[in-house]
Design goal:
mainly alpha, Rhopdopsin 7-helix transmembrane proteins, G-protein coupled receptor, 227 residues, GPCR_Rhodpsn, transmembrane, 3 strands, 3-stranded antiparallel β-sheet, 8 helices, G protein-coupled receptor activity
């Protein structure tokens, strides 16, 4: 089963402007995507700059937020230009050869890993706040432990999304290329379904309940001390 990245990437923006004339619709899509890119770059860069400049802001929670900011920079930098090219060049992949294959693999891989890193950073932010409430004299994670947590988030997220490095490939149609996911390379007919379910469970099925439970415990602990 193959999925064309360019088609799927531009679908979300297509429905919003479908009733407009084509040239106006395309201009609005481009404007919206460029605006998204600029807002993301500005906001996340300011977060990183503030934490870097002011040592008082370098708390565990803020360092994890900075980790999220780095991952949140990946998606707009990688995916937004790809979507803009897809919209303006009839959904064609413009780069061929080994370099084109490498870029194709990275676009899929980095887009997914960015999402997972943000999700898992949220879990450890909740854990840090929980430990700060449950063990106020310790004040959350130790800084030495955080040095292992952040690389661990990136490594685990990379392992979960690593199949994209294997199954992303270029296909040539007449005189143009298409960057696609080819799950048939795994030799497992339901490989796409298995991977989708696994990522959904790891990204949402486990993380959201954990975050809800932790913040509920934080609220209960806070309430018990003040009421």
């Amino acid at each position: 089963m193959s999925t064309n990245y360019n088609i799927s990437a531009s679908t979300a923006t297509t429905t919003t402007f479908s009733s407009l004339p084509e040239n106006i619709s395309l201009s609005l899509k481009n404007f919206a995507l460029v605006l998204l890119l600029m807002v993301s770059l500005t906001g996340n860069t300011l977060i990183l700059w503030a934490i870097y400049e002011d040592k008082r802001l370098r708390t565990n929670t803020n360092i994890l937020i900075a980790n999220m900011a780095v991952s949140d920079l990946i998606f707009p930098l990688v995916s937004v230009p790809t979507i803009v090219v897809a919209l303006n060049f009839n959904r064609k992949w413009l780069i061929g050869g080994d370099f084109g294959v490498a870029i194709c693999k990275l676009v899929h891989f980095l887009g997914e890993i960015s999402f997972l890193i943000s999700i898992y950073s949220c879990i450890f932010i909740a854990l840090d706040r929980y430990y700060a409430v449950a063990h106020p004299f310790k004040g959350g994670f130790s800084r030495s432990r955080l040095k292992y947590i952040i690389p661990g988030i990136w490594i685990f997220s990379g392992l979960v999304t690593s199949p994209y490095l294997r199954i992303s490939r270029l296909k040539k149609y007449n005189d143009s290329y298409s960057c696609e996911l080819d799950w048939s390379q795994d030799g497992i007919p339901s490989g796409h379904l298995i991977h989708s379910i696994s990522v959904t469970v790891l990204a949402n099925g486990l993380t959201i309940p954990i975050i809800i439970i932790l913040y509920s415990l934080i609220f209960i602990g806070f309430a018990s001390k003040h009421f």
